[in-house]
Protein 1
Amino acid sequence: MVVLLIAVIGAAYLLTHFVVDWLQRTFLISTSIEYLLLGVLIGMLILPTKGREPVTDAALLGLIAWPEPLSSLAVVAPLIALAAGWIGLIYGMSIRASSLLERRDGALRLAVIEGLVTAAPVALASYGIFNVLYPGATDESHAALMLSAGVLGVTAWAGSTSAMDVVRRRYSVGGSFLDTLVRAARFSDFFAILAFGVLFAVFHGVAVPEISSDAPLGRLPTEVEWVVITLGLGAALGALFSWFLDEDDSDTGSLLALTGIIAFASGAAFFLDLSGLTINLVLGMVLINVSKSGDKVRRSIEGTYRPITLLLLLLAGAMWTPPPLLLTALLTLVVLGVRLGGKILSGMVASMGTTLRRDIFRGMVGQGDVAIAMAVSFKLVYDVALMPGILEDYAHDAIDATYTAILIGVIVHEVVAPRILKGLLVDTGDIKDENPGG
């Protein structure tokens, strides 16, 4: 029966992979939706969670002896935390202090303004929807609703360079304008991850509402102290582990060392109910700027980007649970509509007094692996691993709807972003032949 399970998953992978590959070549889209769908299939088969029973109990498959499902999704929680933390380290090691502000191309300005006019409106609109649908929320559940709205906001801030990569490969395009778009997307990801860590710290009481009587601390840290712990833990681990990285190590040795580093940092973050994504981002920044072998380590970790991203997509699909339809539809409209409006406005504001185009938002629509990593981290800490009885059922429904809206938003944005970007580059003259190679 294990062979049958592998065959079903393999067939689903091949079908979705070739269909999506054909769509990518034909319609110029950038998405790995097949891995999300495959993850959902795996979750349906072996990961029973609330609102979704494993396929073992399905009437149509009642005669098939499927493998015994896992007792809980929490069993794979360490793997989920590791994958999200790995993404954080990759992005952290791309930030070198010496080159952070080496160019005055407006990319940093654009990323900061996006946070003000994109993330904040999405969060406020989402919070308004939660207040209308759940007017009598208890204190803990109301905090969870505020956190969910904040997560929608920071994931809306997160960008993606995958559309730039697709267009660059397809049309062999380069130049300073495309470089500015890439830098702006990376700055947006950087600030969004930091904001995500602050959200986890500020709303830490949702995960740990009270301290046990036998705890070594007399009180829980304050929100500000949790923020300091998040950033300080990443910096301290980065400084500590920089001594263990040797320039003479082989690529395999460096990768093994990094795996241990990420596992330790992500485990510490998961134990403390903090953002492993943010802690590893800070850790990576310290490593690349302090360690003598920083550049070599960065090259080693960048080679793992694609497989880790695919693993993250599989886990994201496996963690999905059916959300309330109305709430999910409303939040999805906010993610798509308000985010687009914020992108348009941020491009107009950022272009004032600069050489940036007013329609530069057309190159900033993408949303990718950082948003997925945030969604996975959020659901892991505040839903999968949360002790029962802390939140009301409607708060968990809101978390499920938030998670689903983020996944839908990423899929939609990754589908449309390359074509919108191509149109922008045609208008700027960077793309002159719209049909390369036929």
Protein 2
Amino acid sequence: MLIIVIDQAPELFWFVSNSLLVDEIPLKHFKNATTGERYILQELPEIVIINGDDKSIEPEKFINRMRNHVFARNVLFIVVTSDMSISYKKNLLIAGAGQVLYRGVGFSPSTKFFNSMIKWFQTKNEPDPQIFDYTPYPFTADADFTSYGRLCWINSTHCMIETNINLSPGQKIDCRNSLFTELEIEDVQLECIEKNQVGRYYQYANSLMCKIHSKAAAQDSSKINTWIGKNQNISKHKPVKIVYFESEPNYREEIKSLIKEDKRYCARGYGNLEDIEATLDFQRPHLILINRALIEKDKTKFEAIRAFVKNQLCYCITYSHGENESVEEFKKNYEFALHAHNPLDITLLESMLIKLESKLPEKQKTDPWKIYLSKHSPLSRVTLHATCKIKEVATNGVSVILPFLLSNFCGCELASNSFVTADMNRIQFFRCFNSKSISGSTSHRLIFMGQSTRDNDQLKAAIEKIAEVGYDRWLIGDTSNEKKAGKV
């Protein structure tokens, strides 16, 4: 594991170094975003910690750029800042920040919490429930739940979204999007029809094909159809997905430049074969490019590609750029792949892509009655909404009941008047720590994200009173010791 810190001054690096002293995790310090970005793309560190108050870094843009890079999309970002405004925290969460921590004059985050958070980031998909101290207190309250996603394509009646909400087929959720607002389509709900049958283009855990429900369904469908007919010029479809595995940074950039020459396909890259089965299932590529030097290091992992190619419309090309391994041996042992004698060239790549695109299932080919939205389009952003029940609170998070699952590490916001009762901001931000099923619904433990020191202090004070007099009496403001003791 490798962590880098980007900050002009050394104090943030010292804090990180002292917090992780026992763990002996390798750390690097960079004083500006340019050198930090160069190192990220070369070494692909697991975690990057940024001074959010350094205006030269522009954390929102920096994180968004890295999270949309072919290789750096899996890097996790922590922003340490004195700006606790709702808008800044929300923008960081949408950009892809994994956590936002408050640091002000004379105040730094808890080293214990920071250390626990790093351990969480290392195992975010299946975290140890004991990583964080968690002493819950009753806090029964209604809340408005919001999470985020991307609109991949839309036709008159259906759409494809990507999100960290894990809807099952048949489940519905309220949706807001600027296109629906522009077309005056009201009360939009998306009903999940199909889940994770195509690879994901963004950082989200799930791809959901959904049926669009609205207040005036027939008229609204006609509105969308008319809009599609007038906006074919904005449609950007990349039907073929490439995944490539390359450990050499310079050659990664070379392959990336080849892939950019054709706009009919998109690519994701990885520097090693770790978690290869999960990677293939997540991306569901049509073409796999892999350096044989990586295969030589662990041939058992390469067998996962054999199984994937057997069951999917997918081709695999291995290549070399100077190693001495035998191509003939690969041809004999791995007959399912094409083995190039030399480094990849654009002619070979294009011939494979033409062949692939012709074989795609009809539902994956370009449809003139769909608009395929670019990730840079504001129209691609969706917010998903539901009501939920907060059932308990702790100093570092809450537990909520929702009618659907959240993927671990899902970012979300809760708005509740009970937070106001505790003299906190009504809107609080979280990441999902873990989930479990309870009688047809799901309980989610959420960790605060970007909590200010004021809100944290007020929460601790509220918890002390709840422990002292009980939640019901605290809720109505009855916190006097005399009344609790039965005195008049």
Protein 3
Amino acid sequence: MKLPIVIHTEEDYDRAQQRVEELNAMPNSAEKERELHALGEAMLAFELRRDDADD
């Protein structure tokens, strides 16, 4: 079982963006789609937490 992706810092967020770019350069596969989906959810959750902190 793989652990969920969690982004805690801006540095983590930057690494996630870099990983998305790497994945997009790879051929399509089910594993690629799962990782992109997990990264997208983690990035969105981080953005929402950051926006809440700004309010």
